[in-house]
Design a protein that fits this description.
alpha+beta, 4-stranded mixed beta sheet
């Protein structure tokens, strides 16, 4: 089975969020596409207004987000964000809170 093109996948958001919000990155198309998760996580952060946070809810298939997501976001945003692991969901996914400074 071939994964859909990233261009064919609905964006995680289509507007800026001047509040705290959650980005759902555990849809079936995220299950086998770690790069899509990283890309849409970065988009979610970019669409979050400074002073707010976004909860990145990631698919269980990729394991703990510290292993593939934290350093990726740090490389992009450096000290402009704070990344905090919140918890594992009952479904097996993971919640990471990213505070945008």
């Amino acid at each position: 089975m071939t994964a859909p093109s990233h261009d064919a996948v609905e964006p995680v958001t289509d507007h800026d969020h001047d509040n705290s919000w959650s980005a759902n990155l555990e849809q079936p198309h995220h299950a086998d596409d770690e790069e899509l998760v990283r890309s849409q996580a970065a988009t979610a952060i970019e669409r979050t207004v400074a002073g707010n946070h976004v909860n990145l809810v990631t698919h269980a298939n990729h394991g703990h987000p510290e292993t593939y997501l934290f350093s990726h976001l740090g490389d992009i945003y450096g000290d402009d964000i704070d990344v905090e692991y919140v918890q594992q969901c009952g479904c097996g996914g993971h919640v990471t809170r990213v505070q945008v400074k």
